[in-house]
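Practice problem 4.
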C-alpha cells in the first residue's frame, strides 16, 4: 500500500515537473452584439493576461486567460462608458476564463472551462482551432454568452435594446517553453 502511495506521488510530481509554461505573445479578444433596429457593437482588446501550462499532450492544457473590462474598446467612446456601467466594471473589473478541459473533435477542439463575469462563475464551452507548429501554440475559437446569465441587464436606449447574447471570438498565440 505504501508503495502505491509513493507511485502516485512520484507520478504527480513528474507531471508537474514536465509541465511547461506557455508564454503569451500576441492575441485579440473580440465581442459582438447588436442594438435591435440600429447597428452592431464590436468592442475588443489586445490587453490580455494569460497563464497557461501544458505537458507534451494538448489535452493537458490548463490555466487562465483574463482581461480588464476597461481594456475593451469599440468605435464609440460614449458607448464604451455605457458598456463599462452595464458590466459593473468599477465593482468587477476583471473577466477571466479558467480552462478546465480540452477534447479533440473531428476537425476542431472543444474547450471547456469557467468564465467569471460580474462576480459570477459559469461553465462554458468553446469550439476552437488549435495549431501546434514551430514551437507556437495558436488558439482560434468562439463562444456565446447571455448577459442575463451573469445577472447583467442589456441596456436600452430610446426604445432600442441591446441584444442579450454576446458573441466572443479569440485569437491567442503562445510560445512553448
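Answer key:
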Amino acid at each position: 500500500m505504501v508503495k502505491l502511495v509513493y507511485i502516485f506521488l512520484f507520478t504527480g510530481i513528474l507531471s508537474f515537473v514536465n509541465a511547461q509554461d506557455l508564454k503569451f505573445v500576441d492575441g485579440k479578444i473580440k465581442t459582438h452584439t447588436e442594438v435591435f433596429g440600429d447597428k452592431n457593437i464590436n468592442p475588443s482588446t489586445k490587453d490580455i493576461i494569460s497563464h497557461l501550462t501544458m505537458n507534451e499532450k494538448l489535452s493537458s492544457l490548463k490555466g487562465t486567460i483574463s482581461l480588464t473590462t476597461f481594456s475593451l474598446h469599440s468605435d464609440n467612446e460614449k458607448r464604451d462608458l455605457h458598456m463599462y456601467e452595464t458590466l459593473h466594471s468599477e465593482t468587477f473589473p476583471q473577466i477571466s476564463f479558467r480552462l478546465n478541459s480540452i477534447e479533440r473533435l473531428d476537425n476542431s477542439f472543444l474547450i471547456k472551462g469557467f468564465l467569471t463575469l460580474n462576480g459570477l462563475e459559469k461553465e462554458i464551452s468553446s469550439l476552437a482551432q488549435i495549431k501546434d507548429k514551430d514551437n507556437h501554440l495558436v488558439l482560434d475559437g468562439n463562444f456565446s454568452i447571455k448577459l442575463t446569465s451573469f445577472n447583467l441587464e442589456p441596456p436600452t436606449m430610446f426604445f432600442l435594446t441591446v441584444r442579450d447574447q454576446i458573441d466572443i471570438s479569440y485569437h491567442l498565440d503562445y510560445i512553448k517553453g
